[in-house]
Amino acid sequence: MEQITSLFVHKVIAQADDSLDKRAFLRSVGVDPDVPIDPKFMVAAIDYYEFFANVVRADPNGRELPLRVGATMRCENYGAFGLAWKSALNLRGSCERAVRYARVLTSVTSYEIRETDEGVYMSLHRDGDRSELGLRLSNEASIASIAAISQEVSASTFQPLAIYFKHECPGSAASHEHHFGCPVHFAEKMDALLISHDTMRAANRVGDPDIVTFLDSHLDEQLSKFDDNASLERRVRKQLSRLLSQGIPTVSSIASHFGMSGRTLQRRLSDRGYSFQSLVDESRRELAERLLKDTEYSLVDVAFMTGFSDQSAFNRAFKRWAGQTPRSFRIGA
To answer: Using one digit for the tens of pLDDT, what is the confidence trace for 175-221?
Structure first.
């Protein structure tokens, strides 16, 4: 079951209008309103999304609630994860900690750093239907949270160059652009902040390499508790699917995403009865079948998006996997 820390539930309720029955809303997701906040207490992601949507619908100023929630986040709210973000030497180091340790807060979201000439994209990845209000609200709150804690820790003024959301614009982008102080783009291919190279390199106020080393060790220990037999394999396959259109990822690049060496990743997969190559093949097949069944992309496009250099190679591989050609599979799907 996908889960999210109950910390976010409390943050949403704290920013909601006082006319709401906040205790009832907390109980609706299994959170005891009389128990102190415990970030380690998790709630089901599907329940959290429904809760968030219901609060927004009931709140007189609900549409801006995710931005208000994100703006209130501070490093101290996140426990050891927040301290690791704060003590990193620069903002890039902070973001790298999110890439590596987001799993201690949620099993539904992962992060990615992508360098470009125009700046650095700090992207969040979260599966789900963007037509669902709760998921859209959660994504907006997460992006606003990153902006808030980046401003908290950076010694320079934090100002993103642009914000991107996958979902459609909720009427007007004016309130979002006022909040972030930059252009906000909707209906894009990613949920992300675009940050300048200089801002990413700027020193954090209290960066400390010794504290970073200590906290990384602590978070690695916490992370290992979540790393059950299924989760590592599932997370590797999810990351592979995201990168296939750029070519077949190397084991070292995937391992780096999870904060480990290629040799360590291969060993952990082997201990669970998997090989990296088998997961690559499974990811390509699953992605190909989904694209053939649920989209109208051409066979050439599907071949490219699953990491093949040409359609003939894709046809041969797909026939080996499924016992039929991609065209036959699509017709029969």
So the answer is: 999 999 999 999 998 999 999 999 999 999 988 888 888 888 888 87
Q: Tell me the C-alpha distance between 68 and 100, whole Å.
A: 26
For 229-254, the pLDDT digits (tens) are 446 787 788 888 888 878 888 998 88
Looking at the fold, whether 132 and 249 belong to one and the same domain comes out as no
Final residue in a domain of this structure, among 201, 236, 267: 201
Q: How many CA atoms lie within 13 A of 184 on its CB side?
A: 20
Same domain for 74 and 10?
Answer: yes
Look at the chain and report how many structural domains it folds into: 2
Residue type, 73: M
- Quick one: average pLDDT of 103-124? 88
Q: Are residues 197 and 232 in the same domain?
A: no
What does pTM read for this prediction? 0.67
CB contact set of 217 (below 8 Å; sequence gap of 6+): none
CA distance 209 to 206: 10
**CATH code, domain with 196:** 3.90.1520
Q: How far apart are CA 190 and CA 126, in angstroms?
A: 10
Query: For 50-55, which contacts have Cβ atoms below 8 Å and span 24 or more sequence positions?
Result: 50/134, 51/9, 51/12, 51/25, 51/134, 52/12, 52/133, 52/134, 52/137, 52/138, 52/141, 53/132, 53/133, 53/134, 53/137, 54/25, 54/28, 55/12, 55/13, 55/16, 55/20, 55/25
Q: Across the chain, what does the average pLDDT equal?
A: 88
**DSSP E strand boundaries for 173-293:** 184-185, 191-195
List all residues 6 or more positions away from 128 whose beta carbon is below 8 Å from its beta carbon: 49, 108, 135
If 0-12 CB within 10 Å is exposed, 13-18 middle and 19+ buried, where does residue 88 land?
A: buried
Where in the sequence is the domain holding 256, given as residue range(s)?
227-333
Note whether 234 and 89 are same-domain residues: no
Instruction: Please give the Cα distance from 43 to 33 (Å, whole number).
Output: 14
Model pLDDT for residues 138-183, shown as the tens digit of each residue: 999 999 999 999 999 999 899 999 999 999 998 889 999 999 999 9
